[in-house]
Design goal:
This protein is α/β, with parallel strands linked by helices. Strand 9 and strand 10 form a beta hairpin. The strands form 6 sheets. Strands 6, 7, 8, 11, 12 and 13 form a 6-stranded antiparallel sheet that branches. The longest helix has 23 residues. It is globular and about 70 Å long. It is about 30% helix and about 25% strand. Helix 9 crosses helix 10. The mean pLDDT is about 95. The chain has 4 domains: about 70 residues, Uridine Diphospho-n-acetylenolpyruvylglucosamine Reductase, domain 2 (2-Layer Sandwich), CATH 3.30.43.10; about 140 residues, 2-Layer Sandwich (Uridine Diphospho-n-acetylenolpyruvylglucosamine Reductase, domain 3); about 80 residues, Uridine Diphospho-n-acetylenolpyruvylglucosamine Reductase, domain 1 (Alpha-Beta Complex); about 120 residues, no CATH class. Bound molecules: flavin-adenine dinucleotide (FAD).
Length: about 425
C-alpha cells in the first residue's frame, strides 16, 4: 500500500491527480486485504485497469485505487475435443495480449479486440467492442471479489452485456465495491490466414481513422441510439475545436475522440471540453451525448450545480425545490423486519430496492427530467438547481433513489451535491 501515488501516467489521457492510497495486488488474497483496509478506514475504492477509459480529476481520487495489472495477468488456453478452446486469463492481462495470443494459437473470436487498449477486466466491465465484435461474444464467465472479500462467479445471461454495459457496470452504478479477478472465454478453431487478414484489416482501419499518436481515451462519448457521436460532433461544427488556451481538442482526424495535445491538458480542460461538446451537440441536434469515459473524482465549472436532497414527506418538502420526485410508489423496505432499522445507504436495502425493475425505470425517468430542467436553467444563466426526492420517512427509498440519481448524473458529467435531510430522524417513525 502506497500513499499519494500519481495516476496521470497510468491513464491513456495522461492527465489527472494522485490517489490518496494505491495498491497493485498480485492475488485474490491481496485484493481481499485491500478491500478490508478500505472498509476499515471508510475509504471509497476505485479499481483501475489500463486507464484507457477513464478521466481522473486533477484533484485525484480521495480513497484507495486498486490497480489490477501485471500481478494478475495469467493466460491459459485449453483445447477442447470439439474444435473449441477455453481460455482462462487474469483480469490484469492487457486485452490486446489476450486477443493476440488467442488468435496466434489459431482460434477465432478475439480479432476485434487486438487493437483495444486496456485490460481484460476493463474490457469486460465496459463490454468493449469494435468492428462488429464485443466481449459478450466470447466471455462465458467472470470471477470477482466483493466488498466482503467473498469470491463469486457470474456466467451466461447473468453477465447482462449490452452496449458498453455489463453486470459489473450495473453493480458500479448501484454503488457496489468489487474487483474482477479472472475471465473465461470460449473461442473456435479458425483459419489462421483469415484470422491474420481480419486483424490486419482492423489495424489498417484504426490507423487510418484514429489519432493513435495522441493521448486520448478512445471514443469520448457513447453512441446515442440511432446516431454516431462523431458525426453529430462534426455536424455541430466542432471538428478540431478547442476551448481558448486549452490543449484538449476534438480530434480533427476523428471527431469522436478528444485528444490531449502534447500531454499538456489538465483533466479539467478535458472535462470542460466534454461539457462544451455535449451542450453544443444538444443545442444543434437535440441529441444528448453521454460520456463513455468514466469520470473519476470531482470536476468543476458546469453550471447550474444540481443539488439533490432526499427527504420524508412527513417532515416536509425542502424549501426552494425546483423539482420534487415522489418515490413512495416503490415497495417500502421499512416493512421488512430485517431492513426496518437500516437506511438506503446500507447494502441490504440497496439490494432490495435494486431488485425491482420499477426502481430503475423511475430513476431513469427522473434523471431525464433533471437533464431537461438543467438545460433550461443553463440557458437562463442560473447557477443552482434544487431537486428533492421524497418517500414517507426519508430513510430508505428516497435515500437510495437520490444516491442513484446523483451517481447517474455525475457519470454524465454534471456537478452534483447530495444531502439526506431526514436520514437521522427516528426510523420507527416511518
Ligand atoms: C486509442 C484508444 C482506442 C480505443 N478503442 C476502443 C474500441 O475500439 N472499443 C472499445 O470498446 N473501447 C475502446 N477504447 C476504450 C478502452 O480501451 C476500453 O474501454 C477498455 O476496455 C478499458 O479498459 P481498461 O482496463 O483501460 O479500463 P479502465 O479505464 O482502467 O477502467 C474502466 C472502468 O472499468 C473498471 N474496471 C477496470 N478493471 C476492473 C477490474 N479488474 N475490476 C473491476 N472494475 C474494473 C474501472 O473501475 C472503470 O470503471 C479505446 C481507448 C483508446 C485510448
Amino acid at each position: 500500500m502506497r500513499e499519494g501515488v500519481e495516476l496521470k501516467n497510468l491513464t491513456t489521457f495522461k492527465c489527472g491527480g494522485p490517489a490518496r492510497y494505491y495498491d497493485e495486488p498480485a492475488s485474490a488474497e491481496e485484493t481481499a486485504a485491500d478491500l478490508k483496509f478500505a472498509a476499515e478506514n471508510g475509504l471509497d475504492v476505485f479499481v483501475l485497469g489500463g486507464g484507457a477509459n477513464c478521466l481522473i480529476s486533477d484533484k485525484g481520487f480521495d480513497g484507495l485505487v486498486i490497480k489490477i495489472g501485471k500481478g494478475m495477468a495469467s493466460y491459459e488456453l485449453t483445447e477442447n475435443a470439439d474444435g473449441t478452446a477455453t481460455v482462462r486469463a487474469g483480469a490484469g492481462l492487457p486485452l490486446i495480449a489476450f486477443a493476440t495470443r488467442t488468435a496466434q494459437a489459431g482460434y477465432t473470436g478475439t480479432e476485434f479486440a487486438t487493437g483495444i487498449p486496456g485490460t481484460l477486466g476493463g474490457g469486460v466491465f465496459m463490454n468493449a467492442g469494435a468492428y462488429g465484435g464485443e466481449m459478450r461474444d466470447i466471455i462465458t464467465s467472470v470471477t470477482y471479489i466483493d466488498a466482503k472479500g467473498e469470491i463469486r462467479e457470474v456466467s451466461g445471461d447473468d453477465l447482462d452485456f449490452g452496449y458498453r454495459r455489463s453486470f459489473f457496470a450495473k453493480l458500479a452504478v448501484e454503488g457496489k465495491t468489487f474487483v474482477i479477478l479472472s475471465v473465461t472465454a470460449l473461442v473456435h478453431k479458425g483459419d489462421p490466414a483469415e484470422i491474420t487478414a481480419r486483424i490486419e484489416e482492423y489495424r489498417g482501419k484504426r490507423t487510418s481513422s484514429q489519432p493513435l499518436d495522441m493521448p486520448s481515451a478512445g471514443s469520448t462519448f457513447k453512441r446515442p441510439e440511432g446516431y454516431f457521436a462523431g458525426k453529430l460532433i462534426d455536424d455541430a461544427g466542432l471538428r478540431g475545436f478547442a476551448l481558448e488556451g486549452s490543449a484538449a481538442r476534438v480530434s480533427p482526424k476523428h471527431c469522436g475522440f478528444i485528444v490531449n495535445e502534447g500531454g499538456k491538458a489538465s483533466a479539467q480542460d478535458v472535462y470542460d471540453l466534454i461539457v462544451k461538446v455535449s451542450d453544443t451537440v444538444f443545442e444543434k441536434s437535440g441529441v444528448r451525448l453521454e460520456p463513455e469515459v468514466r469520470l473519476v473524482g470531482a470536476f468543476e465549472g458546469r453550471l447550474p450545480v444540481i443539488n439533490i436532497c432526499s427527504f420524508g414527506f412527513k417532515y416536509g418538502v425542502p424549501e426552494g425545490s425546483n423539482l420534487v420526485f415522489d418515490v413512495r410508489s416503490l415497495k417500502n423496505p421499512y416493512w421488512e423486519p430485517e431492513l426496518k432499522f437500516l437506511s438506503g445507504l446500507d447494502e441490504p436495502v440497496r439490494d432490495y430496492l435494486a431488485g425491482f425493475e420499477k426502481t430503475g425505470i423511475l430513476i431513469a425517468n427522473d434523471v431525464d427530467e433533471i437533464e431537461d430542467l438543467h438545460d433550461e436553467f443553463r440557458k437562463a444563466g442560473k447557477d443552482e438547481l434544487y431537486v428533492a426526492v421524497g418517500c414517507t420517512g426519508g430513510h430508505h427509498r428516497s435515500v437510495y433513489c437520490a444516491t442513484r440519481i446523483a451517481s447517474e448524473l455525475r457519470a454524465r458529467g454534471y456537478q452534483v451535491t447530495l444531502t439526506h435531510k431526514d436520514i437521522i430522524k427516528d426510523a420507527c417513525d416511518e
